[in-house]
Amino acid sequence: MFQKILAPVDGSDTAWKALDTARILAERFGGELLVITVTVPYSSVSLLQIAMDQNIIDRNNEELEKAGKVILERAKERLENFKGRVTYDQEAGNPAETILDTVVEEKCDAVVIGSRGLSGVEEFFLGSVSSKVSQYADVPVFIIK
């Protein structure tokens, strides 16, 4: 039934609960997990139009990439004893769009995602990532609180 499950993680408590749930589903159905983290590069965040030096932007994006790596390392630790196949991926871009694209590209059967991430002000203005994913995905989406 669920042979390939996408589990987006952002370091939030609900993302870790969702990852644990994705693991249970994958174990129950003998499926594999695709764990993804998506960072939003500074240049694509247009809530505040502030002219900044390109070096500062590059440094901030490097820090975001490092944070993404830390999140994936923590996910690996949580899945240390998982018997199935796990793939880890780090992307940059719009989280909801990237997750939806990954579902199609990787032929995922389901998405297990946390109800609230770490998006703060962006979530207030643009809507939550989990809401967008559940609205536009063509596969079952489990939203974990």
Question: What labels would you give this structure?
Answer:
alpha/beta; 20% strand; Rossmann fold; globular; 145 residues; five-stranded parallel sheet; 46% helix
Kindly identify the CATH topology. Rossmann fold
Number of helices: 5
Q: Provide the CATH architecture.
A: 3-Layer(aba) Sandwich
Q: Helix/strand-derived class?
A: alpha/beta
The percent range for strand residues is 15-25%
Residue stretches low in confidence (pLDDT < 50, at least 5 long) are: none
General shape: globular
Overall structural domain count: 1
Strands ordered across the widest β-sheet: 3-2-1-4-5
What is the level 1 CATH name?
A: Alpha Beta
Our Rg estimate from Cα atoms comes to 15 Å
For the termini, the CA-CA separation is 23 Å
Give the biggest sheet: 5 strands, parallel
- How confident overall, as mean pLDDT? 86
Order of helices and strands: EHEHEHEHHE
CATH superfamily: HUPs
DSSP E strands, number: 5
Task: Give the topology, please.
Layout: E1 4-8, H1 13-29, E2 32-39, H2 54-78, E3 86-92, H3 95-105, E4 110-114, H4 121-126, H5 129-136, E5 141-144
Helix pairs in contact: 3-5
Compact overview of the structure:
This protein is α/β, with parallel strands linked by helices. The chain is 46% helix and 20% strand.
Describe this structure in words.
By secondary structure, the protein is of the alpha/beta class. The protein has a single domain, classed as HUPs (Rossmann fold, 3-Layer(aba) Sandwich), CATH 3.40.50. It is built from five helices and five strands; from the N terminus they run E-H-E-H-E-H-E-H-H-E. It has helices at residues 13-29, 54-78, 95-105, 121-126, 129-136, and strands spanning 4-8, 32-39, 86-92, 110-114, 141-144. The chain has a five-stranded parallel sheet with strand order 3-2-1-4-5, sandwiched between helices. Helix 3 (95-105) runs parallel beside helix 5. The radius of gyration is 15 Å and the shape is globular. The model has no long low-confidence stretch (mean pLDDT 86).
